[in-house]
Amino acid sequence: ILLDGYGVLVSRGYPDTEAVLSKRYGIPMKKLHAVLYTKYFNLAAERKITQAEAWQKSIDELKLPITRTTLHQLHIGLFTSRTRELAFARKLRKKYTVVMLSKNTRSQFAATKKKLPVVWKSVDAAINTWEMGLPKASRETIRVIAKRFRVRPDEILYVDDQADNLVAPQGMGVHTFLYRNYRQFRRDVLRELRYTSNRRKDP
After folding, report:
1. Per-residue tens of pLDDT for the chain, all 203 residues
2. Distance of CA 59 to CAs 28, 32, 71, 196, Å?
3. What CA–CA distance (Å, rounded) separates 37 from 140?
């Protein structure tokens, strides 16, 4: 079972930071997201620029009156763990291998682990696609994960809060679900696991 890190097991990350900056400096959320996340974070997450460069380029383009250290501290400071989702993940581990899948820079991933160790303790493994040098939403990422855990793509269940991340895995036969809230997430996962279990029992 693959569970998205930021957005499912941990708070949303960039949307929360963008909300604070929008309120503080009067910049539209859409513009903040386009610059902070889409333009520069994605480059950093794919190792094309450093995290420090991503912060500084965002500050320069948005004309934010803060330092990159302040922006980084604001961003990390907003991270919170999702208690119910983590408790559910721990229950799932009694029967399944539960893996957190994330697209983040090494420094942000490490900072999150330091702040929220309970997240790492609630899963069997944590994978950051930065370390793989691959995009999160890619067929190659799923192939690497399937090989590592010795399963076929159609034996993987994957939950993410961004629909774009589910397109490539779904095309490979991965069972995908878009996260909206805890109740929907729990219901959809349990329904799929029951269906899969019953299908395997059929002669």
Report:
1. 999 999 999 998 999 999 999 999 999 999 999 999 999 999 999 899 999 999 999 999 999 999 999 999 999 999 999 999 999 999 999 999 999 999 999 999 999 999 999 999 999 999 999 999 998 989 999 999 999 999 999 999 999 999 999 999 999 999 999 999 999 999 999 999 997 766 555 44
2. 15, 10, 8, 48
3. 23
Which residues neighbour 36 within 8 Å (Cβ) at sequence distance 6 or greater?
14, 17, 18, 21, 58, 62
What tokens does 140 get? Answer: 């190659």
Tokens of 26: 């009067």
Q: Which residues of 9-28 are buried (b: 16+ CB within 10 A; e: fewer)?
A: bbebbbbbbbeebbeeeebe
Neighbours of 167 (CB within 10 A): 11
Beta bridge partners, 158, equal: 2, 176
Token duo for residue 92: 């799932």
